[in-house]
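Q: Can someone sanity-check these two? First one:
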Amino acid sequence: MNRDRRTDSSASPGSGPGVALDALPLHSTNLLTVLDSDGIVQYESPAIERIFGFEQDELVGEQVAEYFHPDDRERVVAAFLSVVSDESTVEEVEYRHEQADGSYTWVESIASGNPTPNGYYVVNTRDISTQKAREQRLRATNERLEEFASIVSHDLRNPLNVAQGRIQLLSDACDSDHLAEVVTAHDRMEALIEDLLTLSRVGKRVSGMESVALASVAETCWRTVPTADGTLVTDTDRHILADRSRLRQLLENLARNAVEHGGDQVTVTVGDFEGGFYVEDDGPGVSSNDRAAIFEAGTSTTRTGTGLGLNIAKQVADAHGWWIRCTDGEAGGARFEIGGVEFVSP
């Protein structure tokens, strides 16, 4: 079937057949706003009706800042002034904008300091209210989870401390093989409490990213984890961009995992490869059939393990935007590789 293909005479050269540039705002799902240098609205695209509920020309001639939420106004105005004062500037800002019914909705606006030929500034705005609502629900859920974990750990720790104290008194009074089993059970309960607290916090996004010496933080973690007669080898001098506290959580849990599975005299090596770093031990390793499940909460191949350590390590990696996997080490042990890491200068 033949079609008569024509080019709109109002289209710019190279804009494609039948595409009139002045028609694009009519079909954009984003709101296009044209402001003068004082922030007075010159034009609003039809999307304003969908996003804010105003008629298309209702805000023309108005000071746009009057429709910003009072708590956001100063910050958004400062961003716009930055755009007006420097043609090379591009500003992106999230804020609340008033709707026709008087309520506020979250939007994201982007503006460039490069004005139109007649000295106006184009602002591209999109609705992010659904995203913000999702973030608020997630934040509330995380806060409730952390509060729950803190309460539970506190309520568990008190009777546990009493039980540990009684066991110590009992061991001084009599000698029984059963006491060692009770002590082991208490130690596991204590580890579970600590891991539950850590697990309630690791899902949060990382903050305070900085240049971290991988070998130095690995050595610090090794000193703070019960490692029996194990040996740490640091085969790296690289610095990575990371949240130092969260990186310690990852390394401490991998070190603890190596000792639990590799034995008291295990050797653990921390090194780097292109795009990441690894933690490797010379223990028995992890079978290929078990590798898919070891990062799931509650999975442990030892009687004393909590099954949370590797899940915590994975969550820390995820929060950084890294990936983590288990493979074979050179000596047949387990090798945990963490990739997607950014190496930086000291």
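And here is the second, same format, sequence then tokens:
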Amino acid sequence: TYMLPSEEALAIGPLLQQRFGLPFWQIATTATDANRFALRVARAITGREKILVFNGCYHGSVDETMVRLVDGRPANRPGLAGEFRDLTRATDVVEFNDVPALETALRDQQIACVVTEPVLTNSCMVLPDPGFHEALRRLTRAAGTLLLIDETHTISTGPGGYTGRHGLEPDLFVLGKPIAGGVPASVWGMSEDVATRYADYIRTKEPGYSGMGTTLSANPLQFAAMRATLEEVMTDENYSHMDHLARRLDAGLTAVIDRYHLPWHVARVGARVEFICAPGPLRNGGEAETAHAPALEAAIHVALVNRGVLIAPFHNMMLISPATSAAQVNRLITAFGAVAARLAA
């Protein structure tokens, strides 16, 4: 690392602006870091401590997001190592797609930022109800609360992510590992208003380390990998290819499920496809948690491997890449059909 800007930054800045619509960008090493730094900015400029997340969310290992609902009440997630704090003191949690609960949580105007994925992805996949994102944006603006969209898992939607495809208007935007094709890198962007307010805050805050940035953030390898990914991999042509095959995979898996009358369903966001061993669609994180069938899913994964097909070893998630072929998709559908036939026999 040079710990100084490199010439690639001159190319990356406009690429990010054009791709994702926000004018100001920073580089970090992981989505966890990017989310942490963006939340610091949100708290700094709003003067509020609390954030809000949705039950079943995933934002890396950001401490404040490690909460869930238990019998309708916020609680720390189970199994956190060395965590003695009550994380719910500074984090509210409501169910995804629950607009009345969101409105209630924002009413006292104490929330600095709502941080969310456009689609819940690290549980069984949960898609937003029609109008949910419009309500989320309207309610956050009315409460003076910033909106952070974490696209790390939903960049599969299209070249501009779910945000670009569906016209979302975040104040802060995070994208992790896909942005550099697997090289450890992430980006976080901010709107003109947020950048102006943060610049005002910096001018008045006491001197000292902000708590943001790491030695390897914005190193030359990250910039080179990001430029190659943005210019040569995340292209309209490649996304069209991925979307076409993802639609084929969705339809093929759904046909198998219907053929054997299994109480399952398929969810998809762009090139990301998942079969879920429960009826659907799911509406929130609570339903997604209940829908998990770990023993059955593990058996399906082994059965697929025995037929020469390996999918992601968590959930039942499959990602179409620019290199994926129609033959590979057909092989997966055929293997899934054989497994389903055995289960239904």
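A (reply): Looked at the second one. The chain has a mean pLDDT of 96. Residues 236-344 form a domain with the Aspartate Aminotransferase, domain 1 fold (CATH 3.90.1150.10).
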